[in-house]
Amino acid sequence: MGDSVHFDYQHQQSVTIISGADAFANLRRYCEQRQGADLKILVLTTQGHQQRGSLQPLLEQVNPHPVTVVDNIQPNPDIDALDTLIAALSPHGFNVVVGFGGGSVLDAAKIIACAIEGTSKRPLHQRFRANETASITRSCSLISVPTTAGSGAEVTPFATVWDDAKKRKYSLTGAAVAPDAALLDARLTLSLPAFETLYSGLDALSHSMESLWNTNRTPISEAYSRQAFRLIVQALPDVLANPADTHSRAMMQQASLLAGLAIATTRTAVAHSMSYPLTSHYHVPHGIACSYTLPGVLQVLKQDSEGQLAELLHDLYEPAMQLLAQLPIMAELENYVKWPQIEALLPEMDVKQRSGNFVMPVDAAIMQRILAETHAFYNER
Fold first, then answer.
1. Can you tell me the distance from the alpha carbon of 98 to that of 142, in angstroms, rounded to the nearest whole number?
2. In a 3-state reduction of DSSP, which class is residue 157?
3. Whole-angstrom distance, CA of residue 148 vs CA of residue 142
4. Smallest Cα–Cα separation from 114: which of 81, 137, 92?
């Protein structure tokens, strides 16, 4: 860090982080202290976790309180599907919501926890499609249990909502959206298949880099970002080569957490802005969509690097390019979309809420350069 870091900032971290093999040990007491002795617990997850019995250690810790498990949360939660689920859950009076899964599950848990109490009677699809920005409140407790190492959603104050009908992406944001506690046990990531390990790892990598080349970075967010980046460069190849390596899995989980803490301050930038149309139109998994342009962004920054941009790149460029070169990013991307289709989406890629955070002014020409440099990088592999 040097002259490029802003020293006028505020930092708040409200999420209690409990990491390790005993992360669930005090869950019941924690919830009882916040909600009293009469707990009604809702757990949101996927069928895979339910079938594998991954939930069992958590369920044992909250016994004898009643628990309702909803295990049909889908990737990239759709706004209309969430409205249907919220309407079904709202009458039950849940006072604890637990998200147990990857980023999509954690985002769904955040949204549902803020909606089931009925502070706004309007369904999500009406509020978001009308760009309603009413403040978000929540009185139930919200616990996040990440089972992937990527999104950092366990500690961020925002959640992504996808609109399949309108081909759009929305973001629910506010202090109430941040979980009260995040429980981390790296053993939960051991069952991830190779493609999910790669996608989630790329998501964390993108967060670590996007929070660095960001106008909102602070000394604290930069420390989170750089440590996350160092852990990912070391651990992601090891995890992909040896999925049973619990230590490397734990390193990736900590990297995801740190990168999540970073973007909680900075939000993301141009690589994420350019990713959204790919997911909206072609259902490209977020980890691939938000990382495929990283080589192009690095090249554009290097070509224009002087002053603070050079400082950002001095210990980032070479290890990042080496890591990106050895990962099958383009092969995975082409399972969903071809390059001409990507180029055709250029007019939709400039989402100012994200591209405006980039350290360079973003326009169509810059994004075209990023795409061109990205294409050249992969063609050389």
1. 6
2. coil
3. 18
4. 137
- Whether pTM > 0.85 for this model: the answer is yes
Q: What distance in Å separates the CA atoms of residue 242 and residue 249, rounded to the nearest whole number?
A: 10
- State which amino acid sits at residue 24: F
- DSSP character at residue 73: P
Of the candidates 106, 97, 88, 3, the one whose C-alpha atom is nearest the C-alpha of residue 46 is 106
- Cα–Cα dist 299/316, whole Å: 12
**Please, which residues have CB within 8 angstroms of residue 364's CB and are 6 or more apart in sequence?**
346, 347, 350
pLDDT score for 1: 45
Q: Which residues pair with 300 in a beta bridge?
A: none
Q: How many CB atoms lie within 10 A of CB 63?
A: 9
Q: Determine the residue type at 364.
A: A
Using the predicted structure, report yes or no on whether residue 119 has a pLDDT greater than 80.
no
In the structure encoding, which two tokens stand for residue 116, read together? 């089931």
CA distances (Å), origin 16, targets 9, 169, 175, 238: 22, 28, 14, 29
Alpha carbons 235 and 256: distance in angstroms, whole number = 11
First-to-final CA distance of the chain:
33
Distance in angstroms (rounded) separating the CA atoms of residues 85 and 99: 14
β-partners of residue 227 are none
Closest CA to 144 of 265, 33, 17: 17
Could you give the strand order of the β-sheet that contains 16-19, starting from the edge strand earlier in sequence?
16-19, 181-184, 141-146, 96-101, 41-44, 67-70
Q: Is the peptide bond before 75 cis (omega within 30 degrees of 0)?
A: no
Which residues, 6+ apart, have CB-to-CB distance to 193 below 8 Å?
none
Q: Please name the residue that has the structure tokens 């009925």.
A: 118
pLDDT band at 24 (very low <50, low <70, confident <90, very high): very high
